Amino acid sequence: MPSEHPTLADYLASWSQGDPVLIAVAETISALTAASAELSRLIAEGPFVRGLGETIGDAGGGDVKKFLDVESHKLFKSALEKAPVAAMGSEEADAAEVLNDGAALVVAIDPLDGSSNIDTNVSIGTIFSVLPVPDGMSPDAALLQAGKEQVASGFILYGPQTTLVVTVRDGTHIFTMAPDDRVFQLTRRDLKIAPDKAEYAINASNERHWPAAVQAYMRDLKAGRDGPRRQDFNMRWVGSLVAEAYRILIRGGIFLYPGDARKGYEKGRLRLVYEAIPLALLMSQAGGAATDGVTPILDIEPESLHQRVSLVFGPPDEVERIAQYYEARPGDGNSPLFSERGLLRG
Ligand code: FBP
User: Fold this and answer.
1) What is the pTM of this model?
2) Domains of the chain by range and CATH?
C-alpha cells in the first residue's frame, strides 16, 4: 500500500520517470535538501555553537553578513558540486561560481534568508531557483534568464518544523523533515492560496517612504470596515521572507515590499534572482501571483545577479488590485515597465 507520506526521493523518482533532464533536476533538489538537513541541525544547535548568530561583516545595502550566512553558503556549494549543476549564483558571493563544466542546470540561491532573525530564534530559510542551461548559453547568462524558464524552485523553512516547499512545475507541495530520520516526507500536496484572507504583511515603519500608490492602498486596508474595503484587515510582519511566504501559502493574505524613497531602496530591498523569482514560481503553481507592483516577476529579465526588485505576492485578485493603485498614479510607479504596461493596456 502506498505510504500516506511518500518521501521526497519517492516523489521525485515517480515524477522524473527515467527522463535524463528531469533526473538531473531531481538530483539537484536532493542535493539541496541533504545540505538543508545539515544546516537545520546546525541552526538547532544555536547557542551551543560559538558565534553562530555573530555578525562578521557588512554585506551592503542594509544587509549584514553573519557567520551562519557564510557557513550556509559553503554547505550548499559543496552539495551542488556533486550535482549536475554548472554554476551557482549565491547571495553570499559577488559573482556566479563555476561548479561542473557542461552540466545541464544552474542554481540561484539565498543560502540563509532572514539572517537578522538568527539570534532571535525566529524562522529563517533557504530559497532556491533551478534553471536550465540552453545550448550555446553560458552558465552566467543562464542564471539571468526570466523566471518563467525555471524548471524548479523552492525554499526550506527552518522553524518549529524544517519544511521544504517545492515545485517542479507540477503543483506546489510541502515536505516536512521527520525529526527521527531527517527524511523529507510529503505532508501537503497541491497547495492552493486562499483567495480572501484579510491579512497583510508589510514593514509599516517605512510608510513615509512608500510611493503614493502603496500609501493609498495601505490606507484603504487600514480603514477596515469603515473604509472602501468594508472589512477589517489583520497585520503580520515576521521579517523573514520565507516565513511570510509560508504563511501566505498556508492561509492566504498579501505581501508587499515595495521600492521606496530611501537611498538604495528605490528598487525595493529583496533580490530578484534568488528571492523573488523562485517565490513567484511557487506562488503561480499554487494559484497565486507575484509582481513588482505591476509587472509579473516571472516575466522580468534580470540584468544582474544581485539586482533588487519591488515584490508583491498573494492571491491574484489582490495582486491585481495593487497594480491598479500603481496605474492610477502614473509617474509614481517604481516599476520601469509601469508605463509600458499602461501603454499596452491603453
Ligand atoms: P536577507 O536575505 O539578507 O536575510 O534579507 C532579506 C530579509 O530579511 C527578508 O527575509 C525580509 O522580508 C526582509 O529582509 C526584511 O527587511 P526589513 O528589515 O527591511 O523589514
Assistant:
1) 0.93
2) 8-188 (3.30.540.10), 199-338 (3.40.190.80)
